[in-house]
Amino acid sequence: MRPMNCIIQEVHSEAPLIRTFRLDKKLDPAPGQYVMVWIRGVDEVPMSFSGPDTITVQSVGEATQALFKMGAGSSIGLRGPLGNGFVLRGESILLVGGGVGTAPLAFLGEQAKRAGIRVTSLAGFRCSEDLILQDRLEALGDLVITTDDGSAGIKGRVAEGLKELDLAGFSQIYLCGPEVMMWDIISRTREHAGKTQALLTRYFKCAAGVCGSCCLDPDGTRVCMEGPVIMADRLLESEFGRYRRGPTGGKGLCKG
Amino acid sequence: MPSLTVHAGGLTLKNPIMLAAGILGTTGASLRRAALAGAGGVVTKSLGSVPREGHHGPTIVHVECGLLNAMGLPNPSYKEFQEEIDFAKTGGVPVVASIFGSSAEEFAGIARGLKADAFELNLSCPHAEKYGAELGRYPDLVESVTGAVKAAADAPVWVKLTPNTADIVELGLAAQRGGADAVVAINTLKAMAIDIETGYPILGNRFGGLSGPAIKPVAVRAVYDLAMRLEIPVIGVGGVSCWEDAVEMIMAGAGAVQIGTALQKGYGIFEEITTGLARYLERKSLTPEDLRGMAGRR
């Protein structure tokens, strides 16, 4: 499929470096799926959906900075929705998000709530200024917030918030955030890994399952095709949380 | 089931269906997965002497009858890649290192520093400045690069040829004069796609290489011509996506067949093709050797 043309309908600022872009296309994505966003003349980058027709983006590099210069009426190219999203299972679920990673979880939670599933959320941020989507998360059900500096909610990492929750009571746990945070959660909750779905970030060069840049060690799982949502029990014995590959294919640290 | 074992370009392969260069060859794990899925051999992503990030995106475009790509030779450098090759070897099939450079010396240096079951010289990438087809379209450079790597390497040397030339046989003969153990044909066809909404070339690199079903007839012709004129084996690659395509490529003269774009369907393609090929040979009471170059004998 060639990139389809898309007009940005609306831009909403969520936090100093995070914005939500409403697209003029209803692509019918499943929560957890992504779309390749082409900023013409700059680059093409993967973005998770934060709603049926929105992406929520953190400015981190050249492509996202170029996107942040765009407003309503600007045009981008889209390829997607791509990959396998989250699968809803059971009657009572827990969402665990960090930073901008809470955005696809809010989308999932809204779908779950409509289906009559009980939703509890745990969301962590660096500080109150970085807090996003609080209204949407509160509307879903119980919400526990953590901040690294204690300026909102519980002081500490996201894992601090786990103490408030009985994980055994949840039929499924959904995880999205910085890799260091996700690894922290998964490694502390190993007994629940079989019911934890994690949305991964890897370097997607082709996003078509052919280039191999996003393959996980040691089994070669293609995150762009077979993910980006992967069961946590499969991540426990993988590279996840230890290293990941960058644009050259070389191994690097899991920052962010 | 009949034996699918072939000897091609100094390697013995348990079956003639290999993973092509540039496809799922970025990590040892993905190469090993192809081997475990039934590939008779695997070729790595092209490796250079220094790390490269490749071109900006989009790096691929799905077009009507194939795939257009301009990855831009991303790789972590051959030194960083040895551990990936070593891991890929645990898949139990030969691992061929695809290498690229801008001079005979650079190619030779990489071949000297890397341990692999064979080397495939990328003299045909159509979209990287100073590399690939920018050398590979000149027969004298093909010969000198091949000769330099042959002198430096302690493994068979294959030369991957570009179809973006008036006469691919001339390039094949040059590789043969340089001492190549096999030629691999073809790399992608230089191509382009434009976004009609805005006029922007879609690929970040503006142009790239076309692969997939669109180029199969071109590849079959190239393999046929090369096999008719060269003494050394020809490895066929270009748009093969089912066992019938593989049979056709072998009939054109291919000693082995590489699969690239068809991996989009998943790793199951290897077993699908080898099973189909084995059944065909059984039905016809033929060996892979009988099949090879059959079109030239008709």
Could you describe the 3D structure shown?
- The complex is a heterodimer of chains A (256) and B (298).
- With 256 residues, chain A is an alpha/beta fold.
- Chain A has 7 helices and 15 strands.
- Chain A has helices at residues 62-68, 102-114, 134-140, 158-162, 179-188, 223-226, 232-235; strands spanning 4-15, 18-23, 34-39, 43-51, 54-58, 75-82, 92-98, 118-125, 143-147, 154-155, 172-176, 196-199, 229-231, 244-245, 251-252.
- Chain A is globular, with a radius of gyration of 17 Å.
- Chain A starts with a strand and ends with a strand.
- In chain A, 51% of the residues are buried.
- The mean pLDDT of chain A is 96.
- Chain B is α/β, with parallel strands linked by helices and 298 residues long.
- Chain B has a single domain, classed as Aldolase class I (TIM Barrel, Alpha-Beta Barrel), CATH 3.20.20.
- In chain B, the strands form 3 sheets. Chain B has an 8-stranded parallel β-barrel, surrounded by 8 helices. A 4-stranded antiparallel β-sheet of chain B has the order 5-6-12-11, with no helix packed on it.
- In chain B, helix 1 (28-36) packs parallel to helix 2.
- Chain B is globular, with a radius of gyration of 18 Å.
- The two termini of chain B are 27 Å apart.
- Classes of the chains: A alpha/beta (256), B alpha/beta (298).
